[in-house]
Structures are given as C-alpha cells and as structure tokens.
Amino acid sequence: MATTTCTRFTDEYQLYEELGKGAFSVVRRCVKLCTGQEYAAKIINTKKLSARDTHTGRYSDS
C-alpha cells in the first residue's frame, strides 16, 4: 500500500503577485521552492461557496 505525506502548500511553494480573480477565487503566480519552476495557483475561497457547491465539489468562477 502506498503512503501519502501531506504538506502545507506554503512549505513547497512561494506565492507572488495576483494574476487574476473571480467571484470565488484568486489566481497567483507561485514558484516551487525545490526546483524554481513557476506555476499559477488557483486559491478558492470556500467560505463564499454554498453548502451545495462544497458538498458536490462544484463551483462557478464566472
């Protein structure tokens, strides 16, 4: 059986400027600390989602 190690996002990535935002989320540039590779991270504000959206895993960002 495989094991999974959970880490905090900020332990592995450095967040930088905001690239865009919607009703429920913000997209920010980030860099993986161990490789220097750049990515975009979509950070979803789950407090703005309805209970139904949270339960089904569905949301709208428009």
Automatic annotation (TrEMBL):
One of its GO terms (molecular function) is ATP binding. Keywords: ATP-binding, Nucleotide-binding. The keyword Transmembrane does not apply. ATP binds at K42. Residues 13-62 form the Protein kinase domain. The keyword Disulfide bond does not apply. InterPro entries: Kinase-like_dom_sf, Prot_kinase_dom, Protein_kinase_ATP_BS. This is Protein kinase domain-containing protein. It comes from Oreochromis aureus (Israeli tilapia).
